[in-house]
Each structure stands twice: as structure tokens, then as C-alpha cells.
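Ligand: FE2/S2 (inorganic) cluster. Inputs:
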Amino acid sequence: MQAIHLTVNGAEISVNAGGDTPLLDVLRNHLGLVGTKFGCGQEQCGSCMVLVDGAPAKSCGKALSTVAGKAVLTIEGLGTPEHPHPLQQAFLDEQAGQCGYCLAGILISAKALIDRNPSPSRTEIAAALDDNICRCGSHPRILRAIERAALQMREGASR
Ligand code: FES
Ligand code: FES
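Predicted complex:
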């Protein structure tokens, strides 16, 4: 088995696993990055969302071989408890979430949105979360949190 090289949260790594191993499995079980969640395992719920070269991707359906040489961002690379990403802070401020299971995937989808569109409308935010299911029905607070983060990031950039 040949090692597969990729970048995860800014660190270059090599993984000894079959090329058809799901990226989600690699993240959680090989690298210990358990913030990315296993929900359905069938590309239906978005709880396993990560960024691959900046684009959202469901890691349960992404074979390791397809991310060779690419840059993967997981929730662990977004922020830390000491230095949360503005999205994470806004989710805390809005208390957006109940059980929290969906939130890593939603935060990743939201980051992809804000990176490409710093001033999204509510409709655009909802569309960007089309692939993310929240079983707790926290969507209203989640939408507010993303609006809040986008505003704070715009204000921060203009200072
Ligand atoms: S676990 Fe990947 S989409 Fe549900
Ligand atoms: S907060 Fe529970 S699934 Fe979204």
C-alpha cells in the first residue's frame, strides 16, 4: 500500500490506507480529527462536510485517492476555543444549535459561503446550507448566526 499525501488543516501528512478509504474514516480513525461527524454515511446529511481546496465536500463519500495532493480543512482547522473563528463566535452568541451534531458540517459550509460571498442574503445562506440537515430544527438561529458573522467580518475588514 502506497502512502497518500495531502494537507490537513495546514499540515502536510501522509496516510497509509487504501485509496478507496472514505476521507471521513481517515480523518476520524487515522488522524483522530473527530470533530467531523458521521451521520448518514450516504452523502445525505452534511454532518461530515469538509473543505477540499476551498470547496465543500461530504467526506463520507470522498475516496482518499481523490484528495491526494489537495488541502483539506476540517472544523479543527477553523478556530480554537481560545481563538474561535468569527463564525464559531457568532454561533455561540446566537446559541445556534441544540445537540450540536450537525454544527461542524454547517460551520464548514458557512465558511465556504462567506469566503466566496462576504455579504450573503438570507436566501443565499439557506441555499448554501441545502446539503446540511439539522434534526434539532435550529435553522433560524443558524441563519442569524451566519448573518452576524458575515457582518462582523465585513466590519472587521473595513476597520
Ligand atoms: S455522513 Fe456524510 S453526508 Fe451524512
Ligand atoms: S443542533 Fe442537533 S442536529 Fe443540528
